[in-house]
Each structure stands twice: as structure tokens, then as C-alpha cells.
Amino acid sequence: LGKMNHQEGKIKTEFHEDEIDLKKIFLSFWERRLLIVSITSSVAILSVLYSLSLPNIYSSKALLAPATAEDSLTSKLSGFSALGTIAGFPLSSNTATKSQEAIERIRSFEFFSNHFLPYVKLENIMATKEWIPEENKLIYDEKIFNKSNNKWVRNKPTLQRAFKRYKSTISISENKRTSFITISVQHKSPIIAKEWLDIIIYQINESMRKIDAETAENSIAYLNRTTQSTNVQSIKEAISKLLENQMQVLMLTAS
Predict the structure, then answer these.
(1) Cα separation of 128 and 145, whole Å?
(2) Is the dihedral of CA 96, 97, 99, 105 positive or negative?
(3) Can you tell me the distance from the alpha carbon of 8 to that of 44, in angstroms, rounded to the nearest whole number?
(4) Distance of alpha carbon 203 from alpha carbon 210, whole angstroms
(5) Closest CA to 115 of 203, 196, 202
(6) What pTM did the predictor assign?
(7) Highest-pLDDT range among 99-108, 186-195, 202-211
(8) 207-231 burial, b for 16+ CB within 10 Å, e for fewer?
(9) Could you report the per-residue pLDDT of 19-62, keeping only the tens digit for each?
(10) How many angstroms separate the CA atoms of 66 and 99, rounded?
(11) Sign of the CA dihedral 163, 164, 170, 173?
(12) Measured between alpha carbons, how far is 209 from 119 in angstroms, rounded to an integer?
């Protein structure tokens, strides 16, 4: 019993000491309340001033929808898996949607270098410092680009650096339920942001239209060769349906 009383007394003492420590901490903070408030206020004010000193970043956004349903040759053939194996068709059920394909193309270096960069100014990507709304004028960083003689102060930025900056200015995502694509472009000038967005939308539509047309033409040629090499009526009928689908794709890309 004596031992239990001793342990209880020890527990009470430890609890009492903890309570005293918490009071000391609280009193310590209270005594330094003016210093704490001053530091917090100073940090908040400096943060606001720094934010106000930064140039505005404008965003141009668009919501895009796939023009047609998936009509790729591979997706059509996936419904004829047994027949395709016999005929030697390259089958796969794990094909990407048009929306996913468009997203990956827009993010690619090939799209940037061939379908975006030729229609914009490199200095607008790499050297823009701020935009003056009243004059609709871009101010460039003089350490990077000299506007007076249109020359780069040091070395001209590489395509890889420009591509990295390009990727940081665009944001693109797909709604998995609707397949709609949301794409936005950021820039210090809202006019430039809108121009770039229009370029991206037009160029992705044109490039994918040409790719679809080329794929359809190759598919038609392949199917025509295949139908001539088989005497199985069921295979010929299936190929005829696939040819009809690819002809539809070809007509849509030509319009």
C-alpha cells in the first residue's frame, strides 16, 4: 500500500510539473507578444508588397470537345479480334482516345517546334518582363533581349529551354466522363495569351486532321490489298465494313 501511495504521489508531481511548464511557456509567449505581433505583421506586409511588385499573369482558357467519336482503324478492328487474327490485322484494344492523343501531342516537343514556335516570337516566350495595358506594349528583360536592335544579349535560347518554358505556360486536362479538354495559356499579356491559345487550337486540329487523313489512306490501301488476298466471304464482308468506316474518316478530314 505504501508503494502504491508513493507511485500516486509521483504521478501527481509529474502532472503538476507539466502544468507548470505549460504556464511558463504561455507566460513566455505573452511577455513577447509585441515582438511576435511585430514580426508577423512585418512578414505579412512584406508578402503583400512583394505580391504587388510582381507583374500580372493573365490566363486565356478554352473548353474543347472531340469532333467525332473514335473511328480509328484499330478501334474498329478490336471488335473483330478473331477475324483480325486470321487476316493478319494489327489488333489492340488499349488505344488512346482522340482527347488523350491531342493532349499528348500538344505537350510534345514535335508539336512545339513544328506547329507552335514558327508562329510566335521567341522573345515573347523567353524575355517578356511586363505588359503595359495603356499602350498594349511588352517590356522585355534587357539582360536577356535587346528590343532596340532585336538581338539577344547573350546566346539565343535553345529550343529545349524554350520548350520547357512553353510547357510551364500551358495547362491542359481531360474530363474523363465527357472527354472534353480544358486548355489554358498564361502570359504577362492577355493578348499574347489569347493569340497563343488560338494558335494551339488551330494547329492541333490541322495536324490531327492531316494525321487522320494519312492514317485513313494507309488503312484503305492495306484493306484493299487484304481483301484481294482472301477468298473467305465473311472476311471480305468485314473488310468491306472497315473500308466504309475509313472512307467516312477520309471524307470528314477533307471537309
Answers:
(1) 9
(2) positive
(3) 49
(4) 11
(5) 203
(6) 0.66
(7) 186-195
(8) bbeeebbebbeebbebbeebbeeee
(9) 556 667 666 766 666 766 667 766 666 655 544 444 588 899 99
(10) 6
(11) positive
(12) 19
Q: pLDDT tens across 36-47, in order?
A: 666 776 666 665
Q: What are the angstrom distances between the C-alpha of 209 and each of 67, 203, 212?
A: 11, 10, 5
- Comparing CA positions, the residue from 79, 57, 235, 177 lying closest to residue 129 is 57
Mean pLDDT estimate for the chain: 77
Between the two ends of the chain, the Cα-to-Cα distance in Å is 98
Query: Tell me: the pLDDT tens digits for 68-124?
Result: 544 444 444 444 444 444 344 444 444 567 888 889 999 999 999 999 999 999 999
Give the Cα separation of 162 and 192 in Å (integer): 16
Number of residues that this document lists for the chain = 255
**Position 112: which residue type?**
F
Measured distance CA(50)–CA(65) in Å, rounded: 40
Is residue 216 within 8 Å of residue 249, measured between CB atoms? yes
Residue 178 CB coordination number (10 Å) = 11
Rg of the chain in Å (alpha carbons): 32
Q: Which of 59, 57, 88, 95 is nearest to 74 (CA)?
A: 95
Q: Which DSSP string do the residues of 35-55 spell out, in sequence order?
A: HHHHHHHHHHHHHHHHHHHSP
C-alpha cell at 190: 492577355
Name the β-bridge partners of 58.
187
> What are 78's three cell numbers?
478490336
Helix (H) or strand (E) holding 174: strand 170-174
β partners of residue 137: 132
Q: Burial level of 180, CB count in 10 A (0-12/13-18/19+)?
A: middle
